[in-house]
C-alpha cells in the first residue's frame, strides 16, 4: 500500500503547509494548502518561494483542484503539487495530466492498481502542461506540440 | 461519416479495459458502491428502479447501418429485446446486468461506439442537427466541429468532476432543430460580414427545475480558437459553479447569478490566458475531419416527382419527409411514436431493420433525433414508396411527425428512480385519444412534451404543450404548461393552473386544443395562436 506516491527526484519537503489566506502574511512559509474554494491565482506572485502546494480534495466529486493545479503549472510553477484527501487510483491519470506530481490519499492506494492506472493511457486527446503530445499533434507530425 | 483512426480506436479500447478493471474491483468488493458510482456514471451506467440502465453515446446522432445492427443485437443479447432512443440522440437499455456491462462496451467498440461520458458530472455526448449534411437551409455541416469537440471533451483531465453535468449542442443553420439554446453551451456555426466561418457561443441554457434560455456571450469566435474558447467557458464554470446545492450547480445558475456580462468578462480573461497555452488543435485537424462528412455521391438528374396515388403513402410523405438540399432526394423520418406506444422505443428487430434500410436507401447513414425518432437523411424520392412499404410492413410508418402524437416523454416512474410520476401511460393515452378522434391531422404542428419530474428530461418547458408529473400527497398529479418552444424562437412554457389526475390531464389537453381550433387564424399553429391570444382563453376553457 502506498501512503505517499511521488514523481519527483528532489527530497520531499514536509514543512507544514499554511492556508492560502494566511500565506500572503507569511512569505517565509514554503508550503501552502489550497482548499476547493481558494483562488490558486492568489499564489502566482509568490511561486518562486513555494516548494510544495497541497491541493485538498475533501470529496473526490469536487473537481476544483484540477483547475488549481493546471493554473499553477500554466504559470510556470515547478515545485511539488500534492493531491491530498479523497484521492483514489481512478483519478490518478487525470490528476497527473493536470500537473499533480505527488499523491497522499486518506486511504492508501493499492500499488498494483496505481501502477496499472498510470500506465493505462498510451495517448491523450488534449494538450496540457504535462509534456505529452496530444493525438492531434501526432496526427499532424508534430510530436513536440 | 466519421471513421476512427488507430488513435481513436485505441482510446475506446483502453476505456473498455479500464471499465472492465473497475467492474472487477466492484464485484470483488475492493470498490464500495459509493466509490464505484461516479466511475460507472462516467460510463453511462445508472442504477435505476429495477436494474442497471446503460446509455450508449451516439455522437451528434449519426449512425451507420452496421452500428444500428449492433445496437439491435445488444438489445437481444443483453436486454429484453428493446432499446430506447433518448432526447440527447443516444440510446439506452433498461435491463442491464453489471457483470455484462464490460462485454457490451467491447461489442460497441468493435463498431467504433462507446458509452463514454453519457452520464456523470462531465461533458456529455455532443448533440447536433439531425438533418446535418442534408438540410436545404444549413450554412455548412456542423458535425466536423462537433467531432472536434467530441475528441477534446473525451477524458478531459480538468473537467472530470464538474459541479454538474454539461451538455453541448452544435448547429449550423438559423432553424434550430437541436434545442441549442437550452444547452449548457449552444454553438451556432455562422459566417461573419467578411465571409469567414466562426462560432457563436450561447452559454447557460437548460431545462430542469430552473429553465433558462442561453444568452449569446460571443457572436463570433474564430474557428482556430473554438477549443480554447470552450475550455475557457468550462474552466470558469469548474472553478466557480455552485457546489453547495446540486439543484443550483448547472452553469445556467452561475451565468444567471454572475450576470451574462460578468460571466463573459471572466471567460474572456481566461481565454486571453489560455491562448498562450497552445491547447488549440491546428486547423489541419479540422480539415482532416471534414472529408468524412462530405456529401455522399448523390445522383444527378433525378426527378422530383412522387407518385401519390396511395393515400396512406401520400399522407406519410406530407407528414414525415423533409426537403433535401440535393434535387430528387428527401430526408425521411421514421416515427417511433406509434399510437399507444412508448415514445422512442424500438424492438431489436426494428433497430436492425432501420440499420439495413439506412444501408439500402440512405448511403449507409441514419440519425437519431432529439425528438426520439430516426432519420434516413438521404433517400431518393423515386424509391420512397418502396421504403414506405417496408416500413409499413414492420410497424414503422406512423405518419405523425411534429403532430400531437409525436410526443417526447421521459421514462418516468416506470423506470426512473428520480421520477415522481409516470410519463409513458400519459403519452399513450394522449396519442390514442387524438388518433381516435382524428384531430391529429387537423391540429397540424403541435409539440407535446412530458416529464415525470421537475428534472425535465422530457423537455416539458419547451413543449407547445408541456406536461409535468409531480407527486401530490402520494398521488401522481400532472401540471399543464402552454407556450414553450425549443426551436429558434425558444421560449419557456407557463403553467395553466392547478394540476390534474391521469385522465384529467388528457381531457385538459383536448380542451386546450379545442380553444386553438376555435380561435386560430389562417396559417397559425397552436403556438402562434397561444402567443397571439395569451393564456386567459385557455384557462377559461380548461378550468371553466
Description:
The complex is a heterodimer of chains A (145) and B (544). Chain A is α/β, with parallel strands linked by helices and 145 residues long. Chain A has one domain: Rossmann fold. Helix content of chain A is 26%, strand content 17%. Chain A contains five helices and six strands; from the N terminus they run ββαββαβαβαα. Chain A has a six-stranded mixed β-sheet. In chain A, β5 (80-85), α3 (89-97) and β6 form a beta-alpha-beta unit. In chain A, α3 crosses α4 (111-119). Chain A starts with a strand and ends in a 6-residue tail after the last helix. Chain B has 544 residues and is α+β, with helices and mostly antiparallel strands. Chain B has four domains: 6-109, Sulfite Reductase Hemoprotein, domain 2 (Alpha-Beta Complex); 142-290, Sulfite Reductase Hemoprotein, domain 1 (2-Layer Sandwich), CATH 3.30.413; 311-393, Alpha-Beta Plaits; 408-543, 2-Layer Sandwich (Sulfite Reductase Hemoprotein, domain 1). Helix content of chain B is 36%, strand content 17%. In chain B, strands 1-2-5-4-13 form a five-stranded antiparallel β-sheet. In chain B, strands 3-14-15-12-11 form a five-stranded antiparallel β-sheet. Chain B has a five-stranded mixed β-sheet with strand order 6-7-8-9-10. The model of chain B has no long low-confidence stretch (mean pLDDT 96). Chains A and B meet through α2, α3 and α5 of A and α1, α2, α6 and α9 of B.
Amino acid at each position: 500500500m502506498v501512503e505517499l506516491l511521488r514523481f519527483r527526484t528532489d527530497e520531499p519537503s514536509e514543512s507544514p503547509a499554511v492556508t492560502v489566506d494566511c500565506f500572503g502574511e507569511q512569505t517565509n512559509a514554503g508550503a501552502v494548502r489550497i482548499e476547493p474554494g481558494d483562488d490558486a491565482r492568489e499564489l502566482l506572485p509568490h511561486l518562486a518561494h513555494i516548494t510544495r502546494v497541497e491541493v485538498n480534495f475533501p470529496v473526490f466529486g469536487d473537481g476544483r483542484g484540477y483547475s488549481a493545479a493546471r493554473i499553477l503549472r500554466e504559470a510556470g510553477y515547478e515545485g511539488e503539487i500534492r493531491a491530498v484527501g479523497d484521492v483514489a487510483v481512478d483519478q490518478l491519470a487525470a490528476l497527473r495530466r493536470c500537473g499533480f506530481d505527488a499523491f497522499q490519499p486518506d486511504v492508501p492506494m493499492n500499488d498494483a492498481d496505481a501502477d496499472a492506472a498510470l500506465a493505462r493511457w498510451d495517448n491523450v486527446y488534449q494538450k496540457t502542461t504535462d509534456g505529452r503530445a496530444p493525438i492531434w499533434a501526432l496526427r499532424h507530425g508534430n510530436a513536440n506540440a | 461519416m466519421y471513421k476512427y483512426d488507430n488513435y481513436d480506436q485505441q482510446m475506446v479500447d483502453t476505456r473498455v479495459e479500464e471499465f472492465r478493471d473497475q467492474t472487477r474491483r466492484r464485484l470483488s468488493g475492493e470498490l464500495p458502491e459509493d466509490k464505484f458510482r461516479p466511475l460507472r456514471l462516467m460510463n453511462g451506467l445508472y442504477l435505476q428502479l429495477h436494474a442497471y440502465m446503460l446509455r450508449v453515446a451516439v455522437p451528434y446522432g449519426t449512425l451507420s447501418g452496421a452500428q444500428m445492427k449492433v445496437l439491435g443485437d445488444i438489445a437481444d443479447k443483453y436486454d429484453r429485446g428493446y432499446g430506447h432512443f433518448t432526447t440527447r440522440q443516444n440510446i439506452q437499455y433498461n435491463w442491464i446486468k453489471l457483470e455484462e456491462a464490460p462485454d457490451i462496451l467491447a461489442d460497441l467498440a468493435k463498431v467504433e461506439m462507446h458509452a463514454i461520458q453519457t452520464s456523470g458530472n462531465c461533458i456529455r455526448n455532443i448533440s447536433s442537427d439531425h438533418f446535418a449534411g442534408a438540410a436545404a437551409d444549413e450554412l455548412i455541416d456542423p458535425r466536423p466541429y462537433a467531432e472536434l469537440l467530441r475528441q477534446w471533451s473525451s477524458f478531459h483531465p480538468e473537467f472530470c468532476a464538474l459541479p454538474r453535468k454539461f451538455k453541448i449542442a452544435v448547429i449550423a443553420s438559423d432553424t434550430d432543430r437541436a434545442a441549442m439554446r437550452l444547452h449548457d453551451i449552444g454553438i451556432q456555426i455562422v459566417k461573419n460580414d467578411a465571409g469567414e466561418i466562426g462560432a457563436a457561443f450561447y452559454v447557460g441554457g437548460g431545462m430542469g427545475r430552473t429553465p433558462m434560455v442561453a444568452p449569446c456571450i460571443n457572436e463570433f469566435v474564430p474557428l482556430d480558437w473554438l477549443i480554447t474558447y470552450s475550455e475557457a467557458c468550462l474552466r470558469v464554470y469548474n472553478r466557480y459553479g455552485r457546489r453547495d446545492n446540486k439543484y443550483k450547480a448547472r452553469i445556467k445558475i452561475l451565468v444567471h447569478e454572475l450576470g451574462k456580462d460578468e460571466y463573459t468578462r471572466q471567460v474572456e480573461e481566461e481565454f486571453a490566458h489560455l491562448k498562450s497555452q497552445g491547447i488549440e488543435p491546428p486547423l489541419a485537424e479540422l480539415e482532416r475531419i471534414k472529408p468524412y462528412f462530405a456529401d455522399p455521391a448523390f445522383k444527378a438528374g433525378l426527378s422530383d416527382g412522387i407518385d401519390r396515388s396511395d393515400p396512406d403513402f401520400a399522407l406519410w410523405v406530407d407528414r414525415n419527409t423533409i426537403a433535401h438540399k440535393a434535387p430528387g432526394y428527401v430526408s425521411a423520418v421514421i416515427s417511433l411514436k406509434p399510437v399507444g406506444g412508448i415514445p422512442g422505443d424500438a424492438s431489436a428487430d426494428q433497430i436492425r431493420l432501420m440499420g439495413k434500410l439506412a444501408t439500402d436507401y440512405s448511403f449507409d447513414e441514419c440519425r437519431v433525433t432529439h425528438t426520439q425518432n430516426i432519420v434516413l437523411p438521404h433517400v431518393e424520392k423515386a424509391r420512397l414508396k418502396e421504403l414506405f412499404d417496408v416500413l409499413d410492413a414492420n410497424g414503422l410508418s406512423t405518419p405523425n411527425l411534429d403532430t400531437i402524437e409525436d410526443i417526447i416523454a421521459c421514462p418516468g416512474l416506470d423506470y426512473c428512480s428520480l421520477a415522481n410520476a409516470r410519463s409513458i401511460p400519459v403519452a399513450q393515452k394522449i396519442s390514442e385519444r387524438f388518433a381516435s378522434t382524428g384531430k391529429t391531422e387537423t391540429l397540424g404542428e403541435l409539440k407535446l412534451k412530458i416529464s415525470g419530474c421537475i428534472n425535465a428530461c422530457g423537455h416539458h418547458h419547451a413543449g407547445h404543450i408541456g406536461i409535468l408529473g409531480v407527486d401530490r400527497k402520494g398521488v401522481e398529479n400532472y401540471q399543464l404548461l402552454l407556450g414553450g418552444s425549443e426551436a429558434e424562437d425558444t421560449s419557456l412554457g407557463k403553467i395553466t393552473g392547478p394540476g390534474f389526475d391521469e385522465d384529467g390531464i388528457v381531457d385538459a389537453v383536448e380542451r386546450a386544443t379545442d380553444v386553438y381550433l376555435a380561435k386560430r387564424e389562417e396559417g397559425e399553429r397552436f403556438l402562434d395562436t397561444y402567443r397571439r391570444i395569451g393564456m386567459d382563453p385557455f384557462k377559461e376553457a380548461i378550468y371553466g
